[in-house]
Amino acid sequence: MTRFISPLIAIVAGLLVLLGYFLPNNDLLGGLRAKFIEWAVILAAAALLVGILNLLTVHIKKISAKEKGSFYSLLLIISLLFTLFVGLFAGTDSSAMQDLFNAVILPVESSLLAIMVVTLIYAGIRLLRYRNDLMAFVFLITVLVIMLGAAPLPFVELPLVGSVIRPFIISVFSTSGARGILLGVALGTLLTGLRVLVGTDRPYGGK
Amino acid sequence: MQIVSNLAGLTLVIFSFILLLGLFLLKDRVKASFRDIPAFRKFDQAIGTAVEDGTGIHFSLGSSGITNPRTATSFAALSLMRHAAGFSAASDQAPIATSGDATLTILSQDNLRTAHYFAGAEQSYKANSGRLAGVTPFSYAAGVLAPIYDENISANVLVGGFGVEAGLLSDAAARKQSFTLAATDSIPAQAVLYASASEPLIGEELFASGAYLETGRAHLVSLYVQDVLRWLIVAALIGGAAMKLAGL
């Protein structure tokens, strides 16, 4: 029975939200759209709790099985519970929570972003091992030209690179390529949405 | 002006729907032939190798849940995962999925369970096969590194709503010398993945995965519709440019 009910709910809700988006002046459709989106946000918030429980379960199992990296799992659980208690007792807008965010999350994420720089340089070097073709060469040369045009070089200034070549690549090749990719992605998004709306794609699973 | 753009959007949706339905009903009369994308061929081989070796496949689905405009990317990723998980569900090591959004985690669990059910391997499905790895982009990346490094994974499928943090994942996969199929809708992330992943997909190739992996006729037809719409847009762009040139 659920085999038919869940697609039916998905299709009806999807169609109503879509029509509500395109016909915002229709009070009924506009109201339904707002209500459905509100429900989706509430469901997503409830799902977050389920997700956190899933995260806890995965790491508790990892610790109990003494798997590789279980010490980090223990740290994760302690940090999670500590942050939860601070949030519950001091409040999410409290200075303690702000300090936790500014002193832990922000620097750690910034550090990961910094590691990305090294990772990308290494990936650039490794690229020719994966793809020893013309496009890989074009990609690497473009990266080099853009970086040389943007970086403040000591003592020397490369003629034309920063003033002509780099802006030309960005405003012509890069922008047109990006727009082409975005158009393709938009069409893909449209068709994926339509497949879900007609029920041939069922991302909500079910047998 | 808003009404005009809304109506134009609605017309495009209805036109696409009619085209999709029409081509779907024509069934076998539509013979689609698409250009070769080696990444999909290699992906099929990687699934086969994983099943034979008894190693696992890891699906990293990104951080786009159901409440943002990138949901379709996640849906395409789920569709790909469900198809591939169906082949590898009966393997010694069941496939795992990590995501950076709780709603996506629940959907991944549901899809993995369905894939196991249809593969006749429901008993090998584990609830923690679909995991929430982190709720911010970089915490997600940090959370995904553990399964890539520590679990017996031979193929990583990084498909979904990623940002540049995907570079950390593809780098980890490269260090483990595992197969990596990578696709996302974000342009900066695509550039990063092009440089760091062994098999990156560019642009809308992510949405073509269903057709290339033969997950169903609807995917084949929708790719055909995508191509028709693309040609219409190309014609409109060239026509617009010509009219502007002519001073109209």
Structure description:
The complex is a heterodimer of chains A (207) and B (248). By secondary structure, chain A is mainly α. Chain A has a domain at 98-129. Helices cover 83% and strands 0% of the residues of chain A. Chain A contains 6 helices and no strands. Chain A has helices spanning 2-22, 27-64, 70-90, 95-130, 134-150, 161-198. The longest helix of chain A has 38 residues, at 27-64. Chain B is α/β, with parallel strands linked by helices and 248 residues long. Chain B folds into 2 domains: 37-213, Rossmann fold (3-Layer(aba) Sandwich), CATH 3.40.50; 216-248. In chain B, strand 1 (56-62), helix 3 (71-88) and strand 2 form a beta-alpha-beta unit. Chain B starts with a helix and ends with a helix. Classes of the chains: A mainly alpha (207), B alpha/beta (248). At the A-B interface, helix 1, helix 2, helix 4 and helix 6 of A face helix 1, helix 3, helix 4, strand 3 and helix 5 of B.
Radius of gyration of chain B: 20 Å
* Number of E-type strands of chain A: 0
User: What is the overall silhouette of chain B?
Assistant: globular
Oligomer: heterodimer
Largest sheet: number of strands, sense, barrel closure of chain A: none
Helix share of residues of chain B? Answer: 55-70%
Ends distance of chain A: 10 Å
The strand order across the widest sheet of chain B is: 3-2-1-4-5-6
Tell how many strands the DSSP assignment of chain B holds: 6
Major sheet details of chain B: 6 strands, parallel
Helix-strand sequence of chain A: HHHHHH
Question: Which structural category do the helix and sheet elements of chain A fall into?
Answer: mainly alpha
